Amino acid sequence: MEQIEPARSGHVVIGVDTHKHIHVAAVMDSIGGILATLTIATDTAGFRQLLEWADGFGKIIAFGVEGTGSYGAGLTSFVRRHGYKVIEVSRPDRRLRRLNGKSDSLDAENAARAVLAGFATAVPKTADGVVEMIRQLKVAHDTAVKDRTGAMVTLKAMLVHATEDLRRETARKTQKMIARHCAALRPRGLNTPEDANRHALRSIAKRWIALNEEIKELEAQIEQLVLQRAPHLLDEFGIGVDTAAEILIVAGDNPERIRSEAAFAKLAGISPVPTGSGMTSGKHRINHGGHRQLNAAIYRTVIVRMRFHEPTIAYVARRTAEGKSKRDIIRCLKRYVIREVYHLVKTDPRTGEIAS
């Protein structure tokens, strides 16, 4: 009996499971299922091999790529430059992995299925402009701030073991004054624990001062880039350079990928999550997901406005009189702020037009 070949549409989706040294791809026909898999190196030659291989199966609808912001960033950029559509695919949840097992080929197949089924629809960030520059500087800035905080905590802990005179001289001083005082210490030798303490204090204080200068330099660079990309953001009450940077990082260099302010609110974890079931329909809870750094930045903006912004103060008074709790009012204000900045982020600073 003649074997019947499975039907083929000629339209395929490529799913890619990304890793540091290799990527595993699976090609899926829109009606014929998985056709083949391929393992490539994570370099230009490997990316070119993937495109040539995928083109042999038919018209490519899209590439579904895991980790477009990490291990898949290079592949995503390469595929886009060659005119193909890229969809960001989330990692499979643990329930599916328990049921179906785990392998690179299976992950690549799941990525292709997610795109074909319409479960994965997110457009990845292009990461090729000013916002990507801000993100990289922000990483350096945040780690320097963390290290500076740790240095000061250690410095104050070491001061507990210092001589009485030194403890008295540094009492009730600011962090900068403590660091400068300890950095100016001149240890006489290294013969006693007191001598070692002064050496340690001097070393840690110099580290704090160096980190403080590094942070100032990075903040100036970030501010310059924020003013270049979205100067209008800094005109809004309660939004400083740090908050504006977080907003831009979440939106990316291609903010048109965010379809609505509701989608932007969800990205920030500011949209309510429905929890209704049966007789309790219509109930919602706080969204604990989203970008927590942006959520915290919007929260700080709201707190500043509640203290110093007259329209916000009036709003809080009115809602309090209506019986709303402070937490509920803050949630409402966070949504107002995210709606406000959404339109500012999508405005092109060169033309003043909304990106679409």
Q: How would you describe this structure in keywords?
A:
five-stranded mixed β-sheet, 3 domains, 356 residues, single chain, Nucleotidyltransferase, domain 5, 7 strands, alpha/beta, two-stranded antiparallel ribbon, 13 helices
Give a written overview of the molecule.
This protein is globular. The protein has 356 residues and is α/β, with parallel strands linked by helices. It folds into three domains: 11-117, Nucleotidyltransferase, domain 5; 130-229; 232-345, no CATH class. The strands form two sheets. Strands 3-2-1-4-5 form a five-stranded mixed β-sheet. A two-stranded antiparallel ribbon has the order 6-7. It contains 13 helices and seven strands. Helix 8 (193-229) packs across helix 9, helix 9 (241-251) packs antiparallel against helix 11 and helix 11 (292-308) crosses helix 12 (310-321).
Main beta sheet, described? Answer: 5 strands, mixed
Order of strands across the main sheet: 3-2-1-4-5
Number of spatially distinct domains? 3
> What best-fitting shape do the alpha-carbon axes yield?
globular
CA-atom Rg in angstroms = 27 Å
Number of helices: 13
Helix-strand string: EEEHEHEHHHHHHHHEEHHH
Which structural class do you get from the secondary structure elements?
A: alpha/beta
Number of strands: 7
GO molecular function: DNA binding; transposase activity
Keywords: Coiled coil
InterPro entries: Transp_IS110-like_N, Transpos_IS110, Transposase_20
Organism: Candidatus Agrococcus pullicola
